[in-house]
Amino acid sequence: xxxPKFGVVIFPGSNCDHDSYYVVKKILNHEVKFIWHQETxxxxxxxxxxxxxxxxxxxxRSGAIARFSPVMNAVTDFAKKGGIVIGICxxxxxxxxxxxxxxxxxxxxxxxxxxxxxxxxxANNDTPFTNKLExxxxxxxxxxxxxxxxxxxxxxxxxxxxxxxxxxxYCDKNGNISDEANPNGSLLNIAGIINKxxxxxxxxxxxxxxSDKVLGYTDxxxxxxxxxxxxxx
Amino acid sequence: MFHAKIKVTLRKSILDPQGKATENSLHSLKYNSVKNVRIxxxxxxxxxxxxxxxxxxxxxxxxxxxxxxxxMEDYTYELEKK
Lengths: 233, 82
Known about the structure:
Shape of chain A: globular
Helix content of chain B: 25-40%
Largest sheet of chain A: 9 strands, mixed
Strand order of the largest sheet of chain B: 2-1-3
Strand content of chain A: 15-25%
Number of strands of chain A: 11
Distance between the termini of chain B: 5 Å
Order of helices and strands of chain A: EHEEHEHEEEEHEEEH
CATH architecture of chain B: 2-Layer Sandwich
Oligomer: heterodimer
Distance between the termini of chain A: 8 Å
Number of strands of chain B: 3
Helix content of chain A: 10-25%
Order of helices and strands of chain B: EHEHE
Number of helices of chain A: 5
Number of domains of chain B: 1
């Protein structure tokens, strides 16, 4: 297979949908379409992006209402059949609420909305989303969230570690995974995780905001490039 | 018809940053005897059922499914006939 077709889901309140669309279309030069949250079919797309934003105003809990959108039934079926799904920021929160990834997001421990570039350590590069990155490589990608404090039970955390499901961790510029480098209080500095089957990734940082050379940062591009590379393997 | 009052709070084992910040603010106002502030959500709703058991199991179902996230939250509720 080659040249995957991308779909970007739009929920009411999504605000990174156009950024994601732009990166796929103009930077990656791949086919991409928007998928409205009321749709019940994904219309032959190969990769689904759940973008960042504030779906349904983040009412109740981030992602709690979006996960019951009609489109999420199709996304769940797609994911269960091995389809490639990436949830970015609010998209990650939706994947957690939907149970497609384990754990939950709490308010940042600082109680502040944090919008800044962070360093991430690539903890697992053997995934469809990170195969163009080196293991332990440090990448620089921005975060922008109020609820990014990853929480899960001890058993779940152990399972994530045992199955190598932790993909990105907040670190300092030297790659140390420390409390000082943890922007939000996430357990084990978790910034991104993958499911056991390795086809569903959730990450709080925004790779689509660090993919265009014009903006000066391109580490996010490597994640999208990895997805495309995966379809060539 | 039944009326339900549902309280959702972070699990006791989880640090509540909002509660902590509010507690610190109360302490700075010299209310030093105030301890263990926890902040949660309060939800009221009506249920158009005549059978109390049915209403009760419905409240529990929606609380587990949508109103709370059992991974990090607990809920309690009161149910009264309307």
